[in-house]
Amino acid sequence: MLGQERTVLPLLADQVFHLNAYTAGMTYILAFGVAKAATNYLAGTWSDRYGRKPVLVAGWLVALPVPLLLIWAPSWWWVIVANVLLGVSQGLTWSTTVIMKIDLVGPERRGFAMGLNEAAGYGAVAATALATGYLAAEHGLRPEPFYLGIAFAALGLGLSTIFVHETRGHADAEARAHKAKDDGSDAHLHAELSQREVFAQTSLREPALSAACQAGMVNNLNDGLAWGLFPLLFASAGLSVGRIGVLAAIYPAVWGLGQLGTGALSDRIGRKSLIVGGMLTQAGALGIVAASDSFGPWAMGAVLLGAGTAMVYPTLLAVIGDVAHPAWRARSVGIYRLWRDGGFAVGAVLSGVVADLWGVRASVWTVAALTAVSGALVFARMYETHRRPGPVSPAPR
C-alpha cells in the first residue's frame, strides 16, 4: 500500500497537479506522517484494551478507499485525504504486526523477529515501487499503477480476518512470569504504569527508550525526504520514469532484505553498535546523493541508504522490546512509533522548506547532517540493552 506511492505520487504532484512549490508537493507526506504517528500511539493502547487482531482488521478496513481516491482524485486535496487514511491504516496494521511478533518470540530472538517483520514490509514497498514505475512508464501515472493497491487492500483484509490469531495472551503470560531484579534497581520499569508514565519513560526519562525515539524520528525524517524529493531530483537530471522507479525501489529493497540479517545480528552482537553505525551510514549515503548527478552514483547512494536503514530499523524496535515491561510494552511500542513516524511529518516540512529556499540538494545535505547528529546522540545516551533475557536495567546515571 505504501509502495504504490513511492514512484508515482511525487510525479503526479509535479506533472498532473502542477504544484510548483516543494513544500506544497510534500503535503501528502505531512498528512500521512501526522495520521500514522497519532494512530501508532492509539494502536498500542487499543491493542492492550481490545486485543491485537481487531485493531489489525480495522486498519485494513480503513485502507480500502485509498487506491480509489488516488485514481479518481480531481484535486490535490483528494490525495491528502487518501494519505490521511493510509496513515491511519498503516498505524493500526503495522503497529499491530510489530506488537504481535514481540508477543510471540522470546528476548533472544526479538531482533530476528523484528527483522522478518520489517523485511516483509519494505520488501513489498520496493517491489511495488518498481512495479508502479513500470506501469506508469507504459500506461501513464493514473489509473493503472494504483490497481495494485486495490488488490493489496483486499488481500490484507482477507488474510488478517481469516488466518491471523490473537496473541495478547502470550504477553499476559510473559508479564505474569516476569521478575524484577532483586535489588529493585529497575522497579520503575516493572511496575504497572499509567499511560502518562509510560509516555514519559519512553519519550524522555529512560535513556535507551528515549534515544531510540529520537533516532527513529530522524530515520523516518530522511525517509520522508527520499520519498518526496528524490524522484524530483532524479527527474531534474532527465531520468525516465522507469529509471526513477528503479532508484525508488533500490533503497527499500536493500532496506527490506538487509533486515533479514541485521535483526538477527543484533541478537548476537547487541543493539547499540548497529544503531550508531546505521545512522552514520545513512548520513554518508545522503551526502553521496546530494553530491551526485547521474544514475550510477545515485544507485550507490540508494544501496548505502538502504543498508544503513536496515541496520537501524528492526534494532530500534528490539530495544523497545528489551526494555519495556510486557505489561506496558504494547503502549511503549505505540509511543516509539508515534515519535518515529512523526519523522515523516517533520521531514516533509523541513525538507520542503529548505528545498524551496535553497534547492533540493541543500535539503538533502541538511538531513544528512541531522542524521549524523542523531547517531552521535545514540552513542552518547543509549546503553546496550541486549545483555541477558528479558528487560534490562538502565545504566548508572
From TrEMBL:
SUPFAM superfamilies linked to this entry: MFS general substrate transporter
Keywords in alphabetical order: Cell membrane, Membrane, Transmembrane, Transmembrane helix, Transport
Statement: the UniProt record of this protein carries the keyword Protein biosynthesis: no
Domain of life: Bacteria
Subcellular location(s) per record: Cell membrane
Bilayer topology: Multi-pass membrane protein
A GO cellular component annotation in the UniProt record: plasma membrane
Primary location: membrane
Protein name: MFS transporter
Organism of origin: Nocardioides pocheonensis
